[in-house]
């Protein structure tokens, strides 16, 4: 009996000790979980209230860094620019700025040129970076892409320089010719010759100023505010009539052809100016006794039928290198020939802006010595499309008559003798 009692007492004591040890271990575990660790201090920072919402609506790329330079928050634009990679800020100058700001609390700003991500052409990405403290532990980095703004500024500088140069040439010529007229006052033939030159330079200056005004208008105005259905036949006839004198002097035949009774939607004046510039270029850059053709047709496109207007010449042609730049303002394939024909270098720039503002495009095919073909693609007018829906030859699948033949001639094309 004494042995059994001793065993029972020992078992009871062991059970009590086990319970006490378990309770102590549980309490210790709870205290350990509540105690902040070094890891939690660095990986779980909290943004101040409202900051997350503000960052989500900013246009600038935003990155928030903690005291260990780890990225706490980054906008999608920051990833797109390649600022953040692998949870770290990848631009060393910006990272150094963040460290300096964290140390002294001062706001810093700098402009940098960064390599453009995903291209192997070495193009620079111009950015403006601004760093500011965000609370006591975080640093905010705002990065704005200045690439497009710098490009526009460069275009403006080039434009002003080109305008100054182009204006200076005829103005200087007029000044010199006026002096020549005064010095030759006793020579009627010389006066007449110099006066003729003055008239040519004055005409060139007038054309340049007018085209500058036209270019400014098509860039700033919305042509679709006063849009209306415009007959393509009327645009072609007006362009032919505009160049009738120049073509006749060079014995150039102008022929209009294609599908009749087509309509485009837009500003009549701007469309007439665009087509007229193409026809005028074709005449000016074509040798004597050649042919200039103007053709129109309807083509089926996924977003709706388009109207193609093609102007073809048998002129000097354009090299592949020049074709990439011919729509730039003041760019001339042959500057000497352009000055001889009175060209300003703005005609194709006006064409490009007019067509783009009407929801279309302009393309060019050319081969040196073989001529060129400029093609305007413009949306067909809604009125004409509605009228086509009731046409007996309607193609049900395409929603309009399908024109598969290239530029069928009109019954009575316009031809100059």
Q: Which SSEs are present, and which pair or pack?
A:
Blueprint: H1 2-34, H2 38-43, H3 51-57, E1 61-65, E2 71-74, H4 76-80, E3 84-85, E4 88-89, H5 92-104, E5 108-115, E6 124-134, E7 138-145, H6 147-183, H7 188-220, E8 228-231, H8 232-242, H9 244-249, E9 253-258, E10 263-266, H10 268-284, E11 291-299, E12 306-312, H11 320-323, H12 335-341, H13 347-357, E13 361-367, E14 371-379, H14 382-389
Parallel strand pairs: 9-11
Antiparallel strand pairs: 1-2, 1-7, 3-4, 5-6, 6-7, 8-10, 11-12, 12-14, 13-14
Helix pairs in contact: 6-7, 7-13, 8-10, 10-13
Walk me through this protein's architecture:
The protein is α+β, with helices and mostly antiparallel strands. The protein is 47% helix and 21% strand. It contains 14 helices and 14 strands. The protein has helices spanning 2-34, 38-43, 51-57, 76-80, 92-104, 147-183, 188-220, 232-242, 244-249, 268-284, 320-323, 335-341, 347-357, 382-389; strands at 61-65, 71-74, 84-85, 88-89, 108-115, 124-134, 138-145, 228-231, 253-258, 263-266, 291-299, 306-312, 361-367, 371-379. It has a five-stranded antiparallel β-sheet, sandwiched between helices. A hairpin with a 2-residue loop joins strand 3 and strand 4. The longest helix has 37 residues, at 147-183. It is elongated. The model is unreliable at 32-44 and 383-417 (pLDDT under 50).
């Amino acid at each position: 009996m004494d042995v059994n009692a001793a065993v029972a007492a020992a078992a009871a004591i062991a059970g009590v000790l086990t319970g006490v040890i378990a309770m102590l271990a549980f309490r210790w575990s709870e205290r350990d979980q509540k105690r902040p660790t070094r890891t939690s201090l660095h990986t779980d920072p909290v943004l101040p209230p409202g900051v997350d919402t503000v960052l989500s609506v900013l246009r600038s790329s935003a990155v928030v860094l903690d005291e260990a330079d780890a990225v706490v928050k980054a906008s999608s634009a920051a990833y797109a620019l390649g600022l953040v990679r692998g949870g770290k800020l990848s631009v060393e100058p910006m990272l150094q700025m963040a460290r300096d700001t964290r140390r002294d609390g001062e706001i810093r700003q700098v402009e940098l040129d960064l390599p453009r991500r995903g291209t192997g052409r070495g193009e620079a990405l111009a950015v403006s970076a601004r760093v500011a403290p965000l609370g006591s532990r975080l640093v905010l980095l705002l990065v704005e892409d200045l690439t497009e703004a710098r490009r526009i500024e460069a275009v403006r500088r080039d434009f002003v320089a080109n305008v100054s140069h182009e204006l200076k040439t005829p103005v200087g010529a007029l000044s010199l010719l006026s002096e020549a007229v005064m010095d030759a006052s006793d020579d009627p033939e010389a006066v007449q010759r110099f006066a003729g030159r003055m008239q040519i330079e004055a005409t060139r200056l007038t054309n340049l100023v007018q085209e500058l005004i036209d270019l400014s208008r098509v860039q700033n105005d919305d042509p679709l505010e006063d849009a209306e259905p415009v007959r393509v036949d009327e645009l072609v006839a007006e362009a032919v009539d505009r160049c009738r004198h120049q073509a006749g002097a060079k014995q150039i035949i102008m022929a209009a052809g294609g599908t009749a009774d087509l309509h485009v939607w837009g500003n009549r004046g701007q469309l007439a100016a665009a087509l007229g510039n193409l026809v005028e270029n074709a005449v000016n850059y074509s040798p004597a006794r050649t042919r200039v053709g103007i053709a129109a047709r309807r083509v089926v496109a996924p977003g709706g039928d388009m109207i193609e207007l093609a102007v073809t010449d048998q002129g000097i042609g354009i090299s592949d290198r020049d074709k990439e730049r011919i729509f730039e303002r003041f760019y001339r394939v042959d500057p000497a020939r352009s000055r001889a024909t009175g060209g300003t270098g703005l005609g194709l720039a006006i064409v490009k802006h007019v067509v783009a503002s009407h929801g279309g495009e302009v393309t060019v095919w050319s081969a040196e010595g073989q001529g060129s073909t400029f093609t305007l693609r413009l949306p067909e007018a809604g009125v004409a499309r509605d009228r086509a829906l009731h046409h007996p030859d309607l193609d049900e699948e395409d929603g309009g008559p399908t024109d598969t033949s290239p530029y069928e001639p009109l019954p009575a094309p316009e031809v100059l003798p």
